[in-house]
Design brief:
This is Ferredoxin reductase. GO terms for molecular function: 2 iron, 2 sulfur cluster binding; oxidoreductase activity. It comes from Rhodococcoides kroppenstedtii. The chain is α/β, with parallel strands linked by helices and about 250 residues long. It has two domains: about 90 residues, Elongation Factor Tu (Ef-tu), domain 3; about 120 residues, Nucleotide-binding domain of ferredoxin-NADP reductase (FNR) module (Rossmann fold), CATH 3.40.50. Strands 4-3-6-1-2-5 form a six-stranded antiparallel beta sheet. A hairpin with a 5-residue loop joins β3 and β4. The longest helix is centred in the last third of the chain and has 13 residues. It is globular, with a radius of gyration of 18 Å. The chain starts with 11 loop residues before the first strand and ends with a strand.
């Protein structure tokens, strides 16, 4: 499957197949994209909306689905209260509606399974904060059975967990730990609070395993986790980060 990774990309027409709620403020859009040439887990794309008067606005969103050789992709969008694009995507779009997309975009924050004839892939550590879990979910879905994954997902409260059913019933070889920062389930043994070095020690991979580490979320979250990983002996070159903030 050919995948364009660089250079100017055209705007493509995407038709909404399904819109489903993930949380009270986030929704996953299933799109069929005319002319889609494929993507790698971890990449994102631009979405453009154009009004009848010609005014347009565009935003970037991570792709939530693994590449499967079809023109169908998923985006999970968090509503921004005063946003121009996200409220329309999460609340107004219906099956059959169309939007324009451009992508895939991104080279660095990408996970690819090892080639069948090459050396095996190292274990993978995914650390996501809030909606930063979206590209990491694509990596989990793209995972091959031979590669063990550990996922640490930091979220404010249970109602804000994306893909809750997937994390409650993870695939074999995928260990998932939820870290609640403001309100935790009654049965939770961990006190609420931000991710700590002890969380990485208990639920991540030791540095001597040389895992590939992917960290995605708000800038302050990503910086803090990356520093913790380096402090625990992980090589900076094995830590890939993706930051996001308000548009």
């Amino acid at each position: 499957m050919a995948t364009a990774l660089s250079g100017a990309k055209p705007w493509l027409v995407a038709t909404v197949v399904e819109r489903r709620a993930e949380t009270p403020t986030a929704a996953t859009l299933v799109l069929d994209v005319d002319g889609w040439t494929g993507h790698h887990a971890g990449q994102h794309l631009d979405v453009k909306l154009t009004a009848e008067d010609g005014y347009s606005a565009q935003r970037s969103y991570s792709i939530a689905s693994a590449p499967d050789g079809t023109p169908r992709i998923e985006l999970t969008v968090q509503t921004v209260g005063d946003g121009e694009v996200s409220p329309y995507l999460t609340s107004a779009l219906e099956p059959g509606d169309r939007v324009e997309v451009r992508g895939p975009i991104g080279r660095w924050f990408v996970w690819r399974p090892a080639a069948p004839t090459g050396p095996p892939s190292p274990p993978v550590l995914l650390v996501g904060g809030g909606s930063g879990i979206v590209p990491l979910r694509a990596m989990v879905r793209a995972r091959t059975a031979a590669v063990p994954f550990r996922v640490l997902y930091s979220v404010r409260e249970p109602a804000e967990v994306y893909y809750a059913d997937e994390w409650a019933h993870p695939r074999p070889g995928v260990d998932v730990t939820l870290i609640h920062t403001r309100r935790a389930p009654v049965a939770s043994r961990r006190p609420v609070g931000r991710i700590q070095p002890a969380d990485l020690d208990a639920h991540g991979w030791p540095a001597e395993f040389e895992p590939d580490c992917y960290v995605c979320g708000p800038t302050s979250f990503v910086d803090a986790v990356a520093d913790m990983l380096v402090d625990r002996g992980h090589a900076p070159g094995r830590i890939r980060t993706e930051r996001f903030g308000p548009s």
